[in-house]
Each structure stands twice: as C-alpha cells, then as structure tokens.
Amino acid sequence: MDSVMMWPPRLWKVGCTLAQCMGFLSFIYVVKSFFIPSSKSITASESFYTNQILYSQEVNERIAQAVKEGNLWNVISMVRNIIMQRKSSNPVKIVVTGDSGNGMSSFINALRLIGHEEEDSAPTGVVRTTQKPALYFSSEFPNVELWDLPGTGVTSQSMENYLEGMEFDKCDLIIIIASEQFSSNHVNLAKAMQRMRRRFYIVWTKLDRDLSSSPLSEPQLLQNIQKNILENLQKEGVMEPPIFLVSNFEPLSHDFPKLRDTLTKDISNIRYTDSLETLSGICDKNIDHKAFSLKENLHSEHLQMTVSYCGTADLQESFKTYQKSFGVDDGSLQQLAQRTGTLEMGHRAMQFQDLHKMDWRLRLLMSFPVYTFFKLLAYRCWFGLWNFVVRKFRHQRQRLIIEVVAQDTKNFLRRALKDNTFPTEVL
Hints:
By secondary structure, the protein is an alpha/beta fold. It has 16 helices and six strands. Helix 4 (72-89) packs antiparallel against helix 10 (256-297) and helix 12 runs parallel beside helix 16 (387-421). 33% of the residues are buried. It comes from Mesocricetus auratus.
C-alpha cells in the first residue's frame, strides 16, 4: 500500500480516474465473457451444392490426429490422396430428365456427338422409348455416367414418387430437358433440385423446330424462351440456374458449345472443389476442437500459473506457442513450403503486432487504458478483491489469441489444400 501511495499525484489521479470510468464496464464485459462463449470463427462460405461424399471414420480420425499434432503436411497429403483416389474410382453421375417427348434421348446422343442410328446410341422416337433408367458413356467426358431417365409422364406416379424413385439425391448433376412449353413438371423438378441442393441445368431442345415455325426473329425468339423459363422459375422462388437453348440436330451450334464448356467445368468442380470443401470442413471442425481444448486447459493450475501476469512479453510468448502448436509458425511454414514444392513462399506467419487487427475484442483487451486498469486491479492493496476479474481478463485474452490463431490456421490450410490438390487446369 505504501508503494502505491508513493506514486506521483498525477499518476495516482490517472489511475483512480481510469478505475472509476472503466471499472463497471470492464467488470460487466469480463463477467459476460464468463457466461457467454466466444463467438465462433467464421470459415469459408459453404458451397450451395451438397457433396454426397461420405468419408470413413478412419479418414476423419487420421485428419483429426494430424491437426492435433499441428502436422499440416500430413493433412495436405491425406486430402490430396483421398481426392485423387475418388477421381479414379468414383465416376461423376449426371442424369437427364424432363417430360416425356421433350427429346431427352436425342439430347444424350447429341451431347455424346453420335448419330441416332449408331449401335450404342440412346433409342429415340415419337413414342416413349425410355421405360427405365439407361446408362451411357461418352469419350467426350471420361469417367462420367450419363443416365437417361424415364420422363415424368411415363407412369402415373406423383412427382414425389418420381423424385424418390429416381434417387436424385445420389446424383451429382441433373439436366432438366424442356421443349414446346416449360410445364409445371419442369418447375417442380427445378424446385426439388434446389431443395436437395443439387446442381442442375435447364436445357431447351428442338430449337430448330421453334425457329422454323415462329414468325419472330431468332434473337426475339431466344429472348422470349429464356424470359418464359425465368418467369416460371421466379414465381416459385427458384434461383436462376444455367439455361441453354439448343437443337439436338445441331450439336455444334447455338448454346451447345457453351453447355459443353460449363459441363466440363462443373465436372471438375464435382471431382475437386466439392470434395475439397467437404474435407476442408472436416479440417475446420478439428481445428475448432483443438482450439476448444486449448481454451479449456487455460483453467488448469499449470496454465493459471503461466498466465499469472499477462504483460506484452508473456502474451507474445503465448502467441508463438499457439502458432507452433497449430503448425503456422515461421519454422513450420518454411518446412511445409519445402516439402510441397508448390506453396507460394510469400506467405509468412502472422505477426504479434497484427493480432489487434484480427478481433475487436482482442483489440479492446490489448488497449493501453484497459491494460492499465487491470494492472491497477492486480495490486496487493485490493487484498485480492479483484483477483477473479483479473484472472478472467487474462484468460479471455489468451482465449481470443487461440481463436485468432485457429482462424489463421483454417485460412492458410484452405489455400494450401487448393494449391496442392487441384490439377493445373482446374486452378
């Protein structure tokens, strides 16, 4: 107490003023942080489309162990191997559906660039020719299954039964074929695909017949067809999907080239991007679990002793320790760059002086006024009255530093996985 009273009068006055102004606010903040968990870090946006890949418990456990050890090289290697294995063993499944008579089988032949008379072509005709799902392959799209489904009018089943029977939830991409009119069946199919979060296209076939019979100019006719499709979808709240206007008899003209380009890109997305998003999500969850465990350990006696005084030097040392634990310190990142051979060397570990930019709560708790105030509370003259508040203040800063380092790990790992997993043509 005597040492405190010997402070210069001006410094003592500043300390008392800070205590008066900030005491209640800081106490409420710390107590609130005790009862309310810190907000969860936001990861990269989840893809709108659902990836149906299910990974084994062994894969999840191996990724969890590598994250726990801070071994990002093992994480990258596992993810890369899993995606490459899936590419070679699991074909992309594309189904073609629509109302009977819309030209679905003819479209599959046109997409495969083969004539209707060839031996392995999809049978076509003025009557219903596809009574059950038929599988086709194309050299244009290696390791891709093209399924020609019965039209929605083949049976008397309701749309719900049709959707369930065709198992659209197991498909990677659905192509909805329409011609003559965009019916309620087409709209219901589109709504169902959006609800199931499936990739889907709308393809208007028989454009050659429309052009030959319409008094409108080609640009006007194309605009009218596109507008009609969009209006019907918008009435039911369906987001605008890729729409292509084609002629099954002219597979190299109209929107067919654009359709092929889009399909090629989406097949790559299905093989790589969607799989990577799922695996990255697994990594994110395990990083969150590790961060949670580290924050829980702050309550142990050993760590309480370690953070008994949280000056700048102590915080900086803790920051470096957490970076090394997650594998995002300078040394770990340099080793990772050398092992991969493809990581951009421009990335460096986050610096301590950048911490306050990453979280407003951390910026507040690292500010000079707040630091000074809690330093005052820590003096023995208070007879331990504020020890609980001071300890929570110290722990909260540590917890926020762990969250920031965890989020930095997620961001870095996602970039590293993309750089080391995607083929050059996909990037």
